[in-house]
């Protein structure tokens, strides 16, 4: 695999991006080719890497919420769960959930399915390689490859599973069954969590689902290969998700960090737990994934949102019931297709909500 001369005088970033993209082999292709030095497009500015040593995991209690009360239909525990969700969403913008009803064997098989997809022959993966977001199933490396300041050390596939699920034959055979099964389980859990969040905000239990916060579901299977120079890059840059809710399944290698009180906090994997990132009563937490010499790291991110292809004119704005004279709206209204187009043009880095600040 040959890339253009990266000497300062001759360096052509666009040409290097194009050369990488045209391999359709992703970051894994670089690792399989024995790359020992990162191509220039993956090297992040020094200030992006300077704070990696300032992380901490011991000063804070990572919020973990046990949903067993919902399973037992215990109203006392139910109230306690709602209070904990509100507290975690206000203070952290994320929390982990356990006893969520998805069996461990399904979680493990979902991670294995992602691994099988990314570790199959490149020729098989190339069938899905695309940057056309209207397709139900695509695979690529860095959806924002041509717009981000630097590429991340990560390959991904993206399945659009709701509101119109793909036909089984549209999904890769190596992970078809588990993607369909896991997506059903996650959709059910997502609706439960939206109901709890609605109640936590003092709204009608169905408020968030009634405004279509769970209309769409996108499943992303991320693959972070071992990196020869992890100090120069990131697995995923600092950003906040642009959907309404993200449910993340991660393997046991770690690497996920959230920004809390201006410090990067490691979110260690917890067996059977799922990480929830909620989107200024509920924080839109900034988070990132470190690159590592260990790998591959595998994660599955499920994003709940609103259909952008159906021509909807619904405008999303701060919830009226949450506003008051002393708490005016902080963000302007926006249609989902406008917001999604902005994010895809800007790339994954930073907070997209800042573009809507009043």
TrEMBL record:
<dbReference type="GO" id="GO:0016706">
    <property type="term" value="F:2-oxoglutarate-dependent dioxygenase activity"/>
</dbReference>
<comment type="similarity">
    <text>Belongs to the iron/ascorbate-dependent oxidoreductase family.</text>
</comment>
<dbReference type="GO" id="GO:0002238">
    <property type="term" value="P:response to molecule of fungal origin"/>
</dbReference>
<feature type="domain" description="Fe2OG dioxygenase">
    <location>
        <begin position="215"/>
        <end position="306"/>
    </location>
</feature>
<dbReference type="GO" id="GO:0046872">
    <property type="term" value="F:metal ion binding"/>
</dbReference>
<dbReference type="GO" id="GO:0031418">
    <property type="term" value="F:L-ascorbic acid binding"/>
</dbReference>
<dbReference type="InterPro" id="IPR044861">
    <property type="entry name" value="IPNS-like_FE2OG_OXY"/>
</dbReference>
<dbReference type="Pfam" id="PF03171">
    <property type="entry name" value="2OG-FeII_Oxy"/>
</dbReference>
<dbReference type="InterPro" id="IPR026992">
    <property type="entry name" value="DIOX_N"/>
</dbReference>
<keyword id="KW-0847">Vitamin C</keyword>
<keyword id="KW-0479">Metal-binding</keyword>
<dbReference type="InterPro" id="IPR027443">
    <property type="entry name" value="IPNS-like_sf"/>
</dbReference>
<protein>
    <recommendedName>
        <fullName>Fe2OG dioxygenase domain-containing protein</fullName>
    </recommendedName>
</protein>
<keyword id="KW-0408">Iron</keyword>
<keyword id="KW-0560">Oxidoreductase</keyword>
<dbReference type="InterPro" id="IPR005123">
    <property type="entry name" value="Oxoglu/Fe-dep_dioxygenase_dom"/>
</dbReference>
<dbReference type="Pfam" id="PF14226">
    <property type="entry name" value="DIOX_N"/>
</dbReference>
<dbReference type="GO" id="GO:0009805">
    <property type="term" value="P:coumarin biosynthetic process"/>
</dbReference>
């Amino acid at each position: 695999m040959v890339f253009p001369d990266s000497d300062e005088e001759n360096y052509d970033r666009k040409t290097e991006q194009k050369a990488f993209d045209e391999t359709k082999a992703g970051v894994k292709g670089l690792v399989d080719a024995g790359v020992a030095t990162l191509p220039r497009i993956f090297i992040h500015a020094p200030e992006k890497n300077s704070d990696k040593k300032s992380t901490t995991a011991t000063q804070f209690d990572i919020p973990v919420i046990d949903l067993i009360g919902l399973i037992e239909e215990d109203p006392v525990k139910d109230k306690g769960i709602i209070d904990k969700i509100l507290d975690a969403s206000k203070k952290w913008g994320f929390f982990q959930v356990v006893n969520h009803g998805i069996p461990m064997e399904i979680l493990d098989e979902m991670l294995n399915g992602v691994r099988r997809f990314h570790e199959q022959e490149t020729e098989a993966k190339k069938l899905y390689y695309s940057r056309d977001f209207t397709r139900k199933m695509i695979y690529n490396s860095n959806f924002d490859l041509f717009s981000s300041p630097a590429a991340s050390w990560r390959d991904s596939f993206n399945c659009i599973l709701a509101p119109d699920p793909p036909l089984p034959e549209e999904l890769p055979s190596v992970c078809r069954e588990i993607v369909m099964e896991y997506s059903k389980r996650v959709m059910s859990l997502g609706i439960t969590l939206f109901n709890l969040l609605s109640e936590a905000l003092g709204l009608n239990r169905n408020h968030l689902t009634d405004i279509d916060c769970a209309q769409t579901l996108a499943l992303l299977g991320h693959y972070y290969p071992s990196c020869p120079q992890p100090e120069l890059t990131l697995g995923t840059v600092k950003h906040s998700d642009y959907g309404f809710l993200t449910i993340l399944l991660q393997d046991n290698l770690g690497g996920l960090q959230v920004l809390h009180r201006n410090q990067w906090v490691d979110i260690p994997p917890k067996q059977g737990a799922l990480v929830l990132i909620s989107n200024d009563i509920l924080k839109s937490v900034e988070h990132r994934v470190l690159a590592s010499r260990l790998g591959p790291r595998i994660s599955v991110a499920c994003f709940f949102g609103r259909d952008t292809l159906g021509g909807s004119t619904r405008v999303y704005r701060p919830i009226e019931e949450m506003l008051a004279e002393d708490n005016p709206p902080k963000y302007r209204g926006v249609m989902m297709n406008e917001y999604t187009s902005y994010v895809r043009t800007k790339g994954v880095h930073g907070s997209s909500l800042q573009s809507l600040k009043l």
